[in-house]
């Protein structure tokens, strides 16, 4: 039996035509699940609404303001810690270069040229290894293996997309 239209009618509190009301009452006589929903709905509508205690809104707003202030303080402290750790890491990484510049410009220039040549040689090595792998891998991996690798890569991409969505969306509510 299809409960969905009857559940929607019960939960949405729509005005029903006479025919829809007859169908609903006939269904409620045979379906205990929908009858329980109707009974709960009737109980909810028959309760008296109580006004909030005096000053509730002002206390709630004050508590909300305090909560937002505390959140801003936590964010500020977190940002300060993040910046300080970043500066310490920057000084730790750049410290040898600064010392080399202060000691001798020739040493600094030699160091920069050495790093540049190291990076250039690394890119050439990675390019060579990549070219060899691109020529050899198709012979070693079966089509099923390629399919599994593609599915795995797609799954990682979906996981990354979900993670980005989860951490960049703004929370709803107060």
Total beta strands: 0
Helix content: over 70%
Distance, first to last CA? 41 Å
Radius of gyration: 34 Å
Basic shape: flat
Order of helices and strands, N to C?
HHHHHH
What structural category arises from helix and sheet content? mainly alpha
**Unreliable stretches covering 5 or more consecutive residues:** none
Strand content: under 5%
Number of helices: 6
Summarize model confidence as the mean pLDDT.
85
Major sheet: none
What would your notes on this structure say?
The mean pLDDT is 85. Among the domains are: 4-46, no CATH class; 56-103. The chain has helices spanning 4-12, 18-30, 32-46, 56-103, 105-140, 143-168. It is built from six helices and no strands. By secondary structure, the protein is mainly α.
Features:
mainly alpha
Provide a brief overview of the structure.
The chain has 174 residues and is mostly helical.
Write the layout of secondary structure elements.
Layout: H1 4-12, H2 18-30, H3 32-46, H4 56-103, H5 105-140, H6 143-168
Helix pairs in contact: 1-3, 2-3, 4-5
């Amino acid at each position: 039996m299809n409960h969905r239209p009857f559940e929607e009618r019960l939960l949405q509190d729509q005005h029903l035509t006479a025919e829809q009301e007859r169908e609903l009452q006939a269904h409620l006589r045979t379906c205990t699940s929908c009858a329980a929903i109707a009974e709960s709905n009737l109980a909810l509508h028959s309760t008296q609404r109580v006004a909030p205690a005096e000053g509730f809104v002002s206390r709630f707003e004050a508590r909300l303001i305090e909560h937002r202030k505390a959140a801003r303080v936590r964010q500020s402290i977190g940002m300060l810690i993040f910046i300080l750790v970043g500066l310490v890491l920057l000084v730790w990484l750049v410290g040898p270069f600064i010392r080399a510049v202060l000691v001798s410009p020739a040493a600094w220039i030699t160091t920069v040229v050495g790093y540049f040549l190291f990076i250039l040689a690394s890119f050439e090595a990675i390019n060579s290894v990549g070219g060899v792998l691109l020529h050899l891998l198709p012979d070693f991996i079966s089509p099923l293996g390629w399919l599994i690798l593609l599915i795995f890569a797609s799954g990682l991409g979906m996981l990354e997309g979900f993670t980005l969505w989860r951490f960049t969306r703004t929370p709803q509510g107060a």
